[in-house]
Amino acid sequence: MTDIIRLTAAQTAEKIASGELTAVEVTEAHLARIEAVDEKVHAFLHIDREGALAQARAVDAKRAAGEPLGPLAGVPLAMKDIFTTEGVPTTVGSKILEGWLPPYDSTVTKRLKAADVVILGKTNMDEFAMGSSTENSAYGPTGNPWDLTRIPGGSGGGSAAALASYQAPLALGTDTGGSIRQPAAVTGTVGVKPTYGGVSRYGMVAFSSSLDQGGPCARTVLDAALLHEAIGGHDPLDSTSIDAPVPPVVEAARSGDVRGMRIGVVKELGGDGYQAGVVQRFDESVEVLRELGAEVVEISCPSFVYALAAYYLIAPSECSSNLARFDAMRYGMRVGDDGTRSAEDVTALTREAGFGAEVKRRIILGTYALSSGYYDAYYGSAQKVRTLITRDFEKAFESVDVLVSPTTPTTAFPLGERVDDPLAMYLVDLCTIPVNLAGNAAMSLPCGLAPEDGLPVGLQIIAPALKDDRLYRVGAAVEAAFVKKWGHPLLEEAPQL
């Protein structure tokens, strides 16, 4: 059983396809692992044991009947609790949707089921994906498997922690300002934010519609590519979906050759405020790229210094609009409806009881930024900055194939350290936010442990829109070089739970 849970997704699928393992055996092994360790980690909010086993039995029946199996058939997956799943609780980490059973599947959920991926359950997250530590969940924080007293990142900390604790070989996340990449960095896993519009948002509960993007989380670059291919592609149900084929991500992940590529180091994503160990491991990664045959140059993107301020006007403004639907009239929690109160009073009481502090903070900020007399000064100005950041990226990609930076300025910080300091918490996303504002693709993968605390450090790779395959090409090359150097994957150094 221990051996089963430590297989990669690609290895697991191969063993199921060959008959060496059954999908039921693999699913039962992961369910047993969840039962053994998740009380300590708290990666999951809901385990769909019966549904997972039913999916696994269906895969085994297909194989027995000689039907072809897809590249991920029978592989278990942990799904961030922001994707609607028919008949399975979807809370978005909020009390306001506690107990809600969606009547439909998100497009991503449908595609996973069509690919015969076994969905184990829903993972913990910051409420409505607002946060960088998974401490804003209404259902309690998740621990980092490397050190349970530290944060696993956010908002998708549950998905990243499930991977790092071997409760699932694959996971699904969403990235609005870094919520796939930052958890990947601090847990020693791989996370990819695809090009905006590359993965359908239909059925993904909205936080900030122009920034939100679903994407793959895994323990290896190839596993992330296989999942990316399964969930990506055009969806007519999503008006922001790109009508273009999925880039050749799996082929790129299998090649992993960076010879002749030009790679830019972003000058503005480093320097003061970055942990010394993070900078050290990043510099080592740049040297590895040189050794692999890439040309490395420094690139300046001057507008990046304004990205954090622009993001925290645009994202709250869009969240203020999107969360207006939670009015106690249609679905979810309802408070104070005793026949004596107006609809407005019931809505106010429900939102007071159902939304957490960070969600309320962002709704208030966004509503103010959109209000009459302030719209142009705040939201309008932030959108202009967004355009400047996009132009900086476009200029950079005229001379380089990809950009690189640290994924986060620091390693995982202790639980509770920044809960009462929103500005310090927001700075966690300093390196990841520019990508979301421009709609580009980006990946985080492990590049070592910081010498100060022995915790994982992430390398961020950024590619132009619709060139997601470049992430996998570079990521696979760096991953192979580091595994050869270390003698094993980084996660093998994590403490045993």
Automatic annotation (TrEMBL):
The gene is gatA. One of its GO terms (cellular component) is glutamyl-tRNA(Gln) amidotransferase complex. It catalyses: L-glutamyl-tRNA(Gln) + L-glutamine + ATP + H2O = L-glutaminyl-tRNA(Gln) + L-glutamate + ADP + phosphate + H(+). InterPro entries: Amidase, Amidase_CS, Amidase_dom, AS_sf, GatA. Its EC number is 6.3.5.7. This is Glutamyl-tRNA(Gln) amidotransferase subunit A. Allows the formation of correctly charged Gln-tRNA(Gln) through the transamidation of misacylated Glu-tRNA(Gln) in organisms which lack glutaminyl-tRNA synthetase. The reaction takes place in the presence of glutamine and ATP through an activated gamma-phospho-Glu-tRNA(Gln). The active site is at K80, S155, S179. Residues 25-471 form the Amidase domain. The keyword Nucleotide-binding applies. The keyword Nucleotide-binding applies. Belongs to the amidase family. GatA subfamily. PROSITE patterns: AMIDASES (PS00571). Keywords: ATP-binding, Ligase, Nucleotide-binding, Protein biosynthesis. Heterotrimer of A, B and C subunits. GO terms for molecular function: ATP binding; glutaminyl-tRNA synthase (glutamine-hydrolyzing) activity. Signal peptide: none annotated. It is an enzyme of class 6 (ligase).
